[in-house]
Amino acid sequence: MIKLALTTALAAVAFSASAYAGQWNVTEANKAGIKRAQGTWTVATEGDKVSGKSEMQLDNGSVLTYKIEGELKGGVYTLKFTDRTDSKKNCVWTGKPVENAHNVYFGEVACDGEKFMIRGGQN
Fold it and tell me: How many CA atoms lie within 13 A of 58 on its CB side?
């Protein structure tokens, strides 16, 4: 019985070490720093692979959602946003750690014909 409990506990620890899910607070802003959307990302990380979804609210009150997929390498996130409800296409965010901030990332998003900034932090 003890062996079964120990095996189960070790399996749970191994699983949780390989896959991590968390919620981020996120703000999208134009290049001048004016906020255009705010909300959350639910992100799962397994190894260097990242996936998830967003639930944002635009400054006009409309809901913005999209899917997130990409990777974390060398402390830098490279994430693609697909199925954006605001019709932006081919969006890729490069998020780098913010100096002197714990689990906060900032960087530019490049979409077809438009660029903006995202600041996000893990809860």
Answer: 10
Residue written as tokens 């095996």?
A: 7
Return the pLDDT at 21. Answer: 79
Own/partner long-range contacts of 112-115 (Cβ < 8 Å, ≥24 apart) = 112/88, 114/88, 115/31
C-alpha–C-alpha distance, residues 30 and 3, integer Å: 56
Mean predicted confidence (pLDDT) in 85-97:
96
Q: Helix, strand, coil shares of the chain as percentages rounded to 5?
A: 15, 60, 25
Task: Name the token pair of 16.
Answer: 């949780």
**CA–CA distance, 50 with 52 (Å, rounded to integer):** 7
pTM for the whole structure: 0.81
What does the radius of gyration of the chain's CA atoms come to, in whole angstroms? 17
At 77, phi and psi to the nearest 5? -90, 135
Give the span between the Cα atoms of 63 and 102, in whole angstroms.
28
Mean pLDDT of the chain: 87
